[in-house]
Amino acid sequence: MSQEMQKVLIADDDGINRQVLASLLKPDYVVLLAKTGEQAIERAQRHLPDLLMLDVMMPDMDGYEVLRRLRADPATARIEVIFITGMGRPEDEAKGLKLGAADYITKPFNATVVMARVATHLQVVRQRRLLEHLAHMDGLTELANRRRFDEIYESEWQRATRHAHTMSVALLDIDCFKQYNDHYGHPAGDRALRAVSRVARNAMRRPCDIAARYGGEELVILMPETDAAQGLYVAESIREAVAQLLIPHEQSVASPVLTVSIGGATLPLGEQESAAALFEAADSALYRAKEAGRNRVNWRM
Q1: Which of 109, 117, 155, 266 sits at a 20 to 30 Å CA gap from 8?
Q2: Residues designated as active site
Q3: How far apart, in whole angstroms, are the C-alpha atoms of residue 65 and residue 74?
């Protein structure tokens, strides 16, 4: 995972409070500011901060209502929230904690306390996201794993059909991989699989594109809003790049070097095709590529 600076959104109607907190946090974090409850919600939805420091008492909407709305929205439901308040009553603190706040910081601010608590909660966020990332990653190839692919594939298919977008999916299989493992050994097979995976990952040019390990020596490529011609171009570039690695494969019937076969399919615009049917079409295209001699791309237009 990248070590980008974490984002903290400060929501307080008092300009001095915003300035004090911002000056404390800016050296270590990306700081965003809001001065109303509505602004806090809008900026939380737009920027998805790692932490929201939220004033309890604001004129348009109190912090409790802001927190309720954030928790009701799946996109913002897991943002860590620290209430900042001048109220010291236990019942007020209990109310916020029951709504899902992680902590309270009282005014006037103590710089040491503020920095320590912010650092503690952001470390929790970082660790949680690392665990989530690892749960979605294949340990050998460091690509997305099958479970993660299945989640994204279903979501992207729904989005494509809802908005009448196109979408392409491709299955990649390393040619004669069992023979490669038998001849060169499984450690060499693992290195070859990682090399092919790097090629596939490097071919993903947009944040929405994803390469995943689907099982064994089989990878899957998902390219939302990509038509058949574009999908075929990406698949062919992957096939060529793998061959150009020049990894010897004396036992292959396709080539003296390691190669891949790829089958793909594109969701037809304006037609109804289930997610399962589209994936099956890509799988069938892969079968035809292998039947035709391997080291080639077959695409269902």
Answers
A1: 155
A2: 217
A3: 16
